[in-house]
Amino acid sequence: MQLGIHRSVRRKVLVIVLVTTFVALLVSAIALLTYEARGYRSFLFSDVTTQADILARTSAPALAFNDAAAATATLAMMSSRPVIDAAAIYTADGKLFATYRQIGNTRPFPDTAEARGPQVEGRAMTLFHPIVENNQLLGTVYLRAKYELADRVVDYLLILGAVMLVSLLVAALVSMWLQGSVTGPILAVTDVARRIVEDRDFNLRAAKTTEDEVGTLVDAFNAMLAEVSERQQALEDSNRKLHQESEDRKNAEISLRLADKHKDEFLATLAHELRNPLAPMVNAVSLMRSPKATEATSEQARDIIQRQLSHMIRLVDDLLDVSRISRGKLTVRREPVELAKILENAVDTVRPLLEREHQALSIEIPERPIFMQADPVRLSQVFANLLNNASRYTQSGGKIGLTAAVHGNTARITVSDNGKGIAAEDLSGIFAMFAQDQDAGQRVQAGLGVGLALAKRLVELHGGSIQAESPGAGKGSTFTVQLPVKAALTSEQGRPVAAAKALPAGACARILLVDDNVDFATSLSFLLQEMGHEVCVAHNAEEALARAGEFQPDFAFLDIGLPVIDGYELARRLQALLRSDIPLVAISGCGQEEDRRRAREAGFAWYLVKPVGLESIRSALNSLAARRG
Q: pLDDT per residue over 216-239, tens digit each?
């Protein structure tokens, strides 16, 4: 069967090539013969007419002078033209005047001249051409030429026959070549298909030898084999994948349970950390409202409220920073700042905790000022978190160290302690979000486990790095922060601008305070009045605009989230109503950079984030007063 297919394909290719070649040659031969016949007839007509015209011109004098010998000599010139078989000159009355024949030609001349053009008569072409001199007919020239079209056709047929024979031989050779390039790959595909059926080996492939349709067929066949192989492999892998998916589901379920456990632990920790400061604050308020409360008791209650409120503010700030980290919104605002000032602020933040735990803090920093381009608030937060973390995991009466040194253009700050240390297996995840020691919950104000993660992110935003080291559990720990130092900042160039001078003692400013939270507005009004300022309170924009013209404030504290007309629009209307340079202070529960930018565009000169402390208010008023001179 395979041999039959082999012969059939080869025979079909041979027949197609030979028939195609023969038909093409036959059509070409017919076209050439037709063209040659028309061309030969046209050429001979033109040639005979030209010769007749020449004879007419040269024989005219001989006719005019009745010189037959001269006319015969003129006709004898036709001996140089073998195609002219015979020639004659007739007089004006149609009588034969002079003649010329080729040797061996015995065909008679016409008896009289006729008025007609070239005509084909058998194997000859004849022509009568008038002889005219000065518009007078002198006679007629007769020419008879050989018309050898049949001979030329035979010659052409012989040539075309030879050409067709050679062409068919070449076509046969081409057919043999095509059989190798066309039928060969087809037979190879057939052989591969047979082997696949017999051996079930789908990895076999047919060899591609051409880039034509046959090559496309081979590619399609191989692609089909590849797809079949892939499907077979997919079927073979199905059980393994199902088994693996089952294992993955089990692992995912374990991960989800672990994540749910961590969520519950975090929520429990958050609830615990929020209740811890709330409980003493509630007790303190109860003490202050007691009729038996003494001044000393009230003072102690106020201290408790202040201390616990500060702790709650820190917890809320940590949660907000966690949200900013997760959304990539945590930013720093760089300015020239001295490292010693940053560390001093951090130490002041944790000093109450250190004193309560009776922990000793040793500080070693270079006497030469170290300046850098950084966000002082955020870096103070970093080192406060590290010091707070060291105090939290160090026993009462323990020792904590803070050192700083400069190596080239890098500042190296180290916070160390002799506390409970960190186990080697926990070091790699110490900076993870919500990572906490399991015993931390036993300590007061254990925190939410975001301080170190926040510190790491803030240090990285400053182009620095942070590392944790510990010899092991019970052997203390060391946190090292490396920050770039601007080499171009000298003590004169880089020293921060001095703080604005405070308002003169006893100076009274007229302050417009607008906030829809009545309790907040009332409490802040009391603080401002205790500072010696005159305060006008309004709880919405309409009320503020109605009272501002009469009150004529020196400063305006505006809540951004006012109903109906927000703080941004109120700021613009107050500037139009009073004066464009009135110092405006924005008060908002949102502290994102986008909120601050919108406030600046609306004309606010200062931005305060709730809860607002007394020092923040005093700093804002002092700075704005300094700007106004």
A: 777 777 777 777 777 777 777 787
